[in-house]
Design brief:
533 residues; mainly alpha; two-stranded antiparallel sheet; 8 strands; signal; Transglyc_AS; Lysozyme-like_dom_sf; LysM_dom_sf
């Protein structure tokens, strides 16, 4: 436009040289313009109209508005398509105030969401669903694919086992589809679509996603019987659900009016970040990381549905990788044989070994061994050789496997010291919480479980205890192997501790005899030990 103004002013200057009006003429023109009396419509004194040719007008660039899909930031792509009305409700205001007061939390959430948000948004758009649904994993899990709730819900979409299986998500030793962001996104959108078809109301559908369709249905029927309104805000729902929908609407309101609230979330590039790669068979995650140029923990984070060191032998044989790394893996897979995707170990069956024992030794399953060796039953003979699919690295290097995550969880300091409890038949979290005088939910959380999870005999639980009477010096937790002739009194005297503490630390009583070789846990003050200890 600046160039056009220059052209106009130049032309006016030329015209002015040819006919400069007198001061009297100028005054008459200004008077007529101010009075605006009887303007002549056929005369247009706008410089552009007078001086610009039709060719120049046609050449003026036309600025087209970007579509939401063309925006640089995926948050802006979502913002432009938000459609749910946000009423002036106290519950929404409370949730909005919380999010606005915690910008650092929202940035952490955005950082977690960054790899996955584009694929989620694209799938929501493909189905023609409200874009508010892209914000639901923030409410559900803060976009943590390893999130696990006290109600047995897992993954970014927080599926419980029953609903997960109903919508096609497998849950087994190798794989948990609830934590597979790709699979669980499709399942969650299927579920939400069904709920909306059932209630024909997105707020009711969202409430049902949180607390169940039956509960929402009952609340609606109850209000109808009492002659009350049946909109979400009028329903008698669980406390968590009453806050759940307002959380989503508060997030949508903040995003839609971010200029008003003077906030901005960590930008996420509006372009595909992850690409889906299909392999022909089970693949070792460490090998896939190596061949794609990724760190193992990175690859496992993007593919958090895999519980172990490899993908499920029965499938899915799918990996999500950043696009550049996906191309590297694709190139290697094009020339690799399916037997190259895991390392194979030749195992000679020893007397007394079973498929279960061998599978446990190699961190695999009996089914995988049977499949690899074309074995139909469980009968194996000593001296036979079996091909076993085995991890290419030490199992402790697979930091995001189920076992290593559990180990990390159980090792977090939660009290003065911890003891281990081997689950016996009939044990429940309720009974154990009373036995050790600890909170039931905390006990489950210390062991990466939900209070309603079944307890399998033989599994070890950690119990964190506090002890105000611990020695005040430099304390160490040690293990003492009982020798012939030892007694609790003798050991207590030797290590300058109390018999009652030894009993508590090891969940034993002085009425039972100690056995030579038995290991006892002791928490001792090393500054007070005798020279012969």
């Amino acid at each position: 436009m600046k160039n056009w103004v220059v052209l106009t002013m130049s032309a006016l200057a030329l015209a002015g040289c040819q006919a400069t009006p007198t001061e009297q003429q100028t005054a008459k023109i200004e008077t007529k313009q101010e009075d605006k009396i009887s303007p002549a419509p056929q005369i247009d004194t706008t410089p552009e109209r007078v001086l610009l040719s039709p060719q120049l007008i046609a050449a003026e660039p036309v600025i087209e508005e970007l579509t939401p899909q063309q925006e640089a930031d995926v948050w802006e792509r979502i913002r432009r398509q938000l459609s749910m009305p946000v009423p002036d409700e106290a519950r929404i205001t409370a949730q909005r105030n919380y999010y606005l007061k915690h910008p650092a939390y929202m940035n952490r959430v955005a950082e977690r969401a960054a790899p996955f948000m584009h694929l989620i948004v694209a799938e929501i758009e493909r189905r023609g669903l409200p874009l508010e649904l892209a914000l639901l994993p923030i409410v559900e899990s803060a976009f943590d694919p390893f999130a696990y709730s006290h109600g047995q819900a897992a993954g970014v979409w927080q599926f419980i086992p029953g609903t997960a299986r109903q919508y096609g998500l497998d849950i087994n030793w190798w794989y948990d589809g609830r934590r597979d962001v790709y699979a669980s996104t499709h399942a969650a959108l299927d579920y939400l679509t069904d709920l909306n078809s059932r209630f024909d109301d997105w707020l009711h559908a969202l409430a049902a996603y949180n607390s169940g369709g039956g509960r929402v249905n009952s609340a609606i029927r109850k209000n109808k019987r009492q002659g009350k309104a049946t909109d979400f805000w009028s329903l008698d729902l669980p406390r968590e659900t009453r806050a759940y929908v307002p959380k989503l609407l508060a997030l949508a309101d903040i995003l839609k009016n971010q200029d008003t609230y003077q906030v901005s979330w960590l930008p996420i590039p509006n372009q595909p970040y992850l690409e889906v790669i299909e392999t022909e068979a089970q693949i070792d995650l460490a090998l896939a990381a190596e061949k794609s140029g990724l760190k193992l923990d990175q690859l496992h984070h993007y593919n958090s549905g895999y519980n172990r060191w490899a993908t499920d032998p029965e499938g899915p044989h799918r990996l999500l990788l950043p696009r550049e790394n996906a191309q590297q893996l694709k190139h290697w897979l094009a020339t690799a044989d399916s037997k190259d995707l895991v390392r194979w170990t030749r195992h000679k069956v020893q007397s007394g070994e079973s498929l279960i024992v061998i599978a446990k030794q190699y961190q695999t399953t009996t089914q995988a061994i049977q499949q690899a060796n074309s074995i139909r039953g469980h009968l194996i003979r000593a001296g036979d050789y079996l091909l076993i699919p085995a991890a290419s690295r030490d199992l402790k290097e697979y930091n995001l496997s189920a076992d290593q995550r559990l180990s990390a969880t159980q090792s977090q300091q939660r009290g003065s010291y911890k003891i281990t409890h081997e689950i016996a038949t009939g044990d429940t979290f309720w009974d154990l919480s009373r036995k050790y005088n600890v909170n039931l939910r905390q006990l489950a959380k210390w062991n990466g479980m939900a209070p309603t999870d079944p307890l399998r005999p033989g599994r070890e639980l950690v119990v964190w205890l506090t002890d105000d009477s611990q020695p005040s010096g430099v304390t160490r937790s040690i293990h003492y192997r009982v020798r012939s002739g030892d007694s609790l009194a003798r050991i207590a005297q030797k290590f300058n501790v109390r018999i009652g503490d030894i009993e508590k630390w090891n969940q034993i009583t002085r009425t039972k005899y100690l056995q030579p070789g038995q290991r006892l846990k002791l928490i001792v003050d090393v500054t007070r030990l005798g020279a012969d200890s």
